[in-house]
TrEMBL record:
Keyword terms, alphabetized: DNA-binding, Transcription, Transcription regulation
Name under which the protein is recorded: LacI family transcriptional regulator
Domain of life: Bacteria
PROSITE patterns, sorted: HTH_LACI_2 (PS50932)
InterPro entries attached to this UniProt entry: HTH_LacI (IPR000843), LacI/GalR-like_sensor (IPR046335), Lambda_DNA-bd_dom_sf (IPR010982), Peripla_BP_I (IPR028082)
Organism: Subtercola lobariae
Gene3D superfamilies: 3.40.50.2300, lambda repressor-like DNA-binding domains (1.10.260.40)
Domain (HTH lacI-type): residue spans on this chain: 13-67
GO molecular function: DNA-binding transcription factor activity; transcription cis-regulatory region binding
Signal peptide limits: none
Transmembrane segments: none
Length: 344
C-alpha cells in the first residue's frame, strides 16, 4: 500500500451528528437551521454551537429537502461548442453567482427530445431554467412553463417570459447595406428548420428585399456549424447570387474558408454577412461583416427576470418580455457588386 492509499480523510459532519452533539432530534436540527423562529432560543443556540464545533455545512440536497429550494438554475443551450453561447453562459454565470445561485449547464445538442427529457429528469435539481434558442414547440414550452419557472432567450412563446435579441432588425440593416452596394441578387443562407430565430430572420429578409423590388432567395437549410459552410458556399456559387446573409457567424466563416479554397475572392466576387459577432468574427479572413448582438447582456437580463419570479409570491405586473437591439458591424467581407465578372 502506498502512502497515498493510507490517507484517511475526515468524514464530513452530518445532520445526525449535530443532533447527537446537541442532544435533540434530527427534525429539530432541521427546523433550527432552516427556520430558526420555530425553535426556542436556548435550543437553537445549542444547535448552532454544535454545528460550529463540528464544522457542519448542509449539502445542496439536504438544503433542498429542508427548504424546497436548491439555489441552482439550469441553463440550457443548443450547442455548447458554439461560440455564440460563450458570452451568454458568462452572463448567466456572473448574474447567478452575484445572487448566490449555482449554474447547472445543459447542452441539448440541438435536440428537442433531449431538451424535454433533461428538463423532466433534472427537475428536482434546480429552482428554475433558462432556455436559450429552445427547439421545443410552442405548445410544449407553454405546458412546461406551468411546471418549471423559466425564461427563454431568442424564443418568444405566449405566456412564457422571454429575452429577445432583435436580429430581425439587424437583418434589415444588412440587406439595406448590401443594396446600397449595388447588390440585387441576394440570398439568405438558412439555419436549421427547427430554429425559431431562423424563421424570424428569413421573414425579415423577405420584407427587406421585397421593399426594394429584389426577389428573396433562400438557400439551405444548413447546420449552424462551420463545417456546413462548405456546402453553403458551393450552393451560393451555383445560385448565381452576388451576396449572402448567413444564419450565423459559424456558417458564414465556414463559407469564407470554402470560398478561399475555391479561389473565389471575397468581397470582390461574393459578399458575405454573418450574424451574432462571435469571438473570432473580426479576425477571420477577411474580417466578417456581421450583426453585433448584446449576448452577455441577454444572459444577465434572463437571470434577473427568472430570479424575480423565484423570489416573489406573485408575477402580477412583472416584466415578462425584454427586447435587446442589434446593429450591423461593417468589415471587409462585403463590398460593391461585381460587374459582369467571370465566376468559377
Amino acid at each position: 500500500m502506498s502512502p497515498a492509499d493510507d490517507v484517511s480523510w475526515p468524514r464530513a459532519a452530518t445532520l445526525a451528528d449535530v443532533a447527537s452533539a446537541a442532544g435533540v432530534a434530527i427534525s429539530t436540527v432541521s427546523r433550527a437551521l432552516s427556520n430558526p423562529a420555530r425553535v426556542n432560543s436556548v435550543t437553537r443556540e445549542r444547535i448552532e454551537q454544535a454545528a460550529r464545533d463540528l464544522d457542519y455545512s448542509p449539502n445542496s440536497q439536504a438544503r433542498a429537502l429542508i427548504s424546497g429550494r436548491t439555489r441552482a438554475v439550469a441553463v440550457f443551450v443548443a450547442d455548447v461548442t458554439n461560440p455564440f453561447y460563450f458570452d451568454l453562459i458568462r452572463g448567466t454565470q456572473r448574474q447567478l453567482k452575484a445572487a448566490g445561485y449555482t449554474q447547472v449547464l445543459v447542452d441539448t445538442e440541438e435536440s428537442d427530445e433531449l431538451e424535454d427529457l433533461t428538463l423532466q429528469k433534472l427537475r428536482r435539481s434546480f429552482d428554475g431554467a433558462i432556455l436559450a434558442a429552445s427547439r421545443l414547440t410552442d405548445a410544449r414550452l407553454a405546458a412546461l412553463s406551468h411546471e418549471v419557472p423559466m425564461v427563454t432567450i431568442n424564443r418568444q412563446t405566449k405566456s412564457v417570459p422571454s429575452v429577445f435579441i432583435d436580429t430581425p432588425s439587424g437583418i434589415l440593416q444588412a440587406v439595406e447595406h448590401l443594396i446600397s452596394l449595388g447588390h440585387r441578387k441576394i440570398a439568405y443562407i438558412s439555419g436549421p428548420e427547427t430554429s425559431w430565430p431562423n424563421e424570424g430572420r428569413w421573414r425579415a429578409f423577405v420584407r427587406a428585399t421585397e421593399r426594394h423590388g429584389v426577389e428573396p432567395q433562400r438557400i439551405g437549410p444548413f447546420s449552424p456549424k462551420k463545417a456546413a459552410g462548405a456546402a453553403a458556399a458551393d450552393a451560393a456559387l451555383n445560385s448565381g447570387v452576388t451576396a449572402c446573409v448567413a444564419f450565423n457567424d459559424l456558417l458564414a466563416i465556414g463559407m469564407l474558408m470554402r470560398l478561399r479554397e475555391r479561389g473565389v475572392s471575397v468581397p470582390e466576387q461574393l459578399s458575405i454577412v454573418g450574424c451574432d459577432d462571435i469571438f473570432g468574427a473580426d479576425f477571420c479572413n477577411p474580417p466578417l461583416t456581421t450583426l453585433t448582438a448584446p449576448i452577455e447582456q441577454a444572459g444577465r437580463v434572463a437571470v434577473s427576470m427568472l430570479l424575480a419570479r423565484l423570489d416573489s409570491t406573485t408575477v402580477s405586473g412583472m416584466r415578462d418580455r425584454a427586447t435587446l437591439p442589434t446593429h450591423l458591424t461593417v468589415r471587409a467581407s462585403t463590398g460593391p457588386v461585381p460587374h459582369e465578372r467571370g465566376r468559377p
